[in-house]
Write a structure and sequence with these properties.
The protein is of the alpha/beta class. It has a domain of 220 residues: Rossmann fold, CATH 3.40.50. Helices cover 43% and strands 16% of the residues. It has twelve helices and twelve strands.
Length: 343
């Protein structure tokens, strides 16, 4: 089958593309920079088809979706990566509308959209369910995801063949853009690991997330699916990183309200200049208030699972060392990448 992927040069999109190609499917990517995309897939046994365009340009989206059987929409803007709030809304709202409308007009039978748990976030984990209403958001990223969420749900209510997947923090190896979650891991190793009381966080291995997205694109399945990943207390997170890396982390006790205030201050500075830190008001809210959220039962029903955190961190850190994001001396216990067990 022919699958169009937006965000195919990003973290999740590139893993989805490679898994689909490995399964024998034809993959088309809508990319802004063909040279960068070609470099990301250079050396791969099977290559995706590259079409130059932008999800904010409806005409290029319509051309890209023509003749496709399925669509995976994985392109998104984040608070740290976006140049402005306007650009983030153009991508996260306007881009979703362009891509999904074009796919429906072209008769695409399977549409998979990557959202985020933040769109339905609640500090009470029992209230974070597929039926949960979009969460009111004060901050721009959250507002953009919620607006896109309302659009997609309205189409689902009309019977459109749309699956929405809500991942937690996505982590793993082979991240072409060195996304926010990987940058945060590097920040902790470089600068110390802040322990936010007795709270924790959920992260999903990008390969497990990609496998679930591929299953939806290939086998179908409309609806809403939560995939926040494996929950770890912050102390267990630090223990696991120390175990697989061989490093000794500086553990810094941190009060949640202070970190949330720092995040707001960093966001103010970002209005005037680039700030090289994963800290923002949004990231600090989730880091300090994240509850334990259940993963979709569809994962098990489709014969899929989640890797153990030790395996995810071992692979992620091994790749980060090989890619030069971390020094070998910082992670003396990691094995060379690629590890034979990494698939």
């Amino acid at each position: 089958m022919q699958v169009l992927i937006t965000g195919g040069t990003g973290f999740v999109g590139s893993h989805v593309a490679r898994q689909l190609l490995a399964a024998g499917h034809e993959v088309r990517l809508l990319v802004r920079d063909a040279a960068r995309a070609a470099a990301i897939y250079a050396g791969d046994e099977r290559q995706p088809q590259l079409l130059v365009g932008d999800i904010t340009d409806a005409a290029s989206v319509r051309a890209a979706v023509e003749g496709c059987d399925a669509l995976v929409h994985a392109a998104a803007g984040t608070p740290i990566r976006s140049e402005s709030v306007e650009q983030m809304f153009a991508v996260n709202v306007g881009g979703v509308k362009n891509v999904v409308a074009a796919a429906l007009e072209a008769g695409v039978a399977r549409i998979v959209c990557l959202s985020s748990i933040t769109a339905i976030f609640n500090t009470d984990g029992d209230k974070v369910t597929p039926e949960a209403p979009p969460a009111p958001a004060k901050l721009p990223y959250g507002r953009s995801k919620v607006e896109a969420e309302h659009y997609l749900r309205a189409l689902q209510a009309q019977g459109a063949p749309i699956a929405i997947v809500y991942p937690g923090g996505v982590i793993g190896p082979d991240d072409p853009g060195f996304s926010d979650t990987c940058a945060a891991l590097k920040h902790r190793i470089d600068n110390g690991f802040r322990i936010f009381g007795d709270g924790g966080i959920q992260q999903v291995d990008v390969r497990d997330l990609a496998a679930f997205v591929c299953a939806l694109a290939i086998d179908g399945g409309a609806g809403r699916f939560l995939l926040p990943g494996v929950y770890l207390k912050w102390t267990a997170f630090a223990d696991t990183v120390e175990e697989v890396s061989g490093c000794q982390l500086e553990r810094i006790p941190a009060q949640g309200w202070k970190l949330r205030l720092v995040g707001r201050l960093v966001d103010l500075v970002r209005l005037f200049r680039r700030v090289d830190t994963p800290i923002s008001a949004e990231t600090m809210r989730y880091a300090t208030l994240w509850p334990h959220i259940a993963n979709t039962p569809e994962l098990e029903q489709r014969g899929l699972g989640l890797r153990a955190p030790r395996d995810t961190f071992a692979d992620t850190l091994a790749w980060m060392v090989a890619a030069g994001h971390l020094g070998r001396e910082q992670c003396p216990a990691v094995e060379p990448w690629p590890r034979s067990a990494a698939v």
